[in-house]
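Quick illustration for those who missed Monday's session on complexes.
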Amino acid sequence: MVLKPEIIAGNIAAMSAFCQNANVLLAPHAKTAMSPEITALQMDAGAWAMTAATPHQVRVLHAFGVQRILLANVLVDLPAIAWVRDHVLSDPSKDFLCYVDSLAGLERLENALAGSGHQRLGVLIELGYRRGRTGCRTIDEALTLARAVSRSDAVWLAGIAGFEGLIRGSSENAPISEVDAFLDHMHDCLVALHDDGLFPVEPPIVSAGGSSHFQRVVEKLGPTAFPLAVRTVLRSGCYVSHDHGLYAETSPLSWSLTNPTGLRAALELLCSVWSRPEPDLIIAGFGRRDAPTDDRMPVVLRNHSAPQSDDMAGYEVVGVNDQHAFIRVPAHSLVGVGDVLGLGVSHPCGAFDRWRFLPLVTPDYDVVGGVTTYL
Ligand SMILES: Cc1ncc(COP(=O)(O)O)c(C=O)c1O
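Prediction with pyridoxal-5'-phosphate bound:
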């Protein structure tokens, strides 16, 4: 799996320009790559914070030297709360936010933080939706929880958060209307909490946005969408490498002839053809150990050994074992044993998961460096 540094740099620049134009803050989700080299590029480009999904990722980002970490999740494990208390809240130069979605979770935070004498922990009330993951389901629940937070000596209410990226919808056109409905619900919740005087520090934070619907988030939860001042924080992660599948289809900022500075896929999987045991079947040297297949199979982009010889449209990865791929090819195609193929992948997180080191290559595939991952 190789990475193209000029594309990574272009994607980071495109997203940072998008956020600046929209007047929103970006806390890139670091879980995509968990790479100190990529994190440094994102911080240099003006990221407001880095986002983590788990206490483990919080510790890794802390070790990368990140000053402000947003844990886009609830924090309920007592050893993890104690670690945050002793390593982050004790240090005035560090900033940390996490979610709460229940009185039980709040009580655990309060018990673990009581009497520490450190700065108070900033929390965002998480909103969810029916059959979704964590998060208060109703504005009444959020209000009850926010009132309890406002009475606490250990935590303070910094804002609200939610995640629209997993709303798949019940029919082809449903996702966008269901995403919009959830974002409207978040909007109303923020206004209700504000009207109740529950935010001790203005402007409150409203955070949502993966890499598929951040345009909708800006429209529905951006600074111009509210009758009060807000700080809108996007948490997009996969934009950084983009892909040849899910995000190529869903990102509002994908490269196109009309958007030449848009996001492009920076990952490419290289493999050789091991065998052509049947005229329309090749067996190639990669498998599910090397590339994600959870969203869809990788797509063959090019034959590096015979760039002009074939139209790749007829190639289809139809199966993978641990280390083998089954690729259907047109029976008349010229592909041969030993040819090197380049493939695009879908869902970048699964690609970075599988590699501790990814070479950085020039457009001519000379290796000019590398990035490491800590997943
Ligand atoms: C809570 C949360 N925020 C942000 C993101 C980032 O979204 P994406 O992976 O589409 O960039 C995710 C991804 O799963 C997430 O779970």
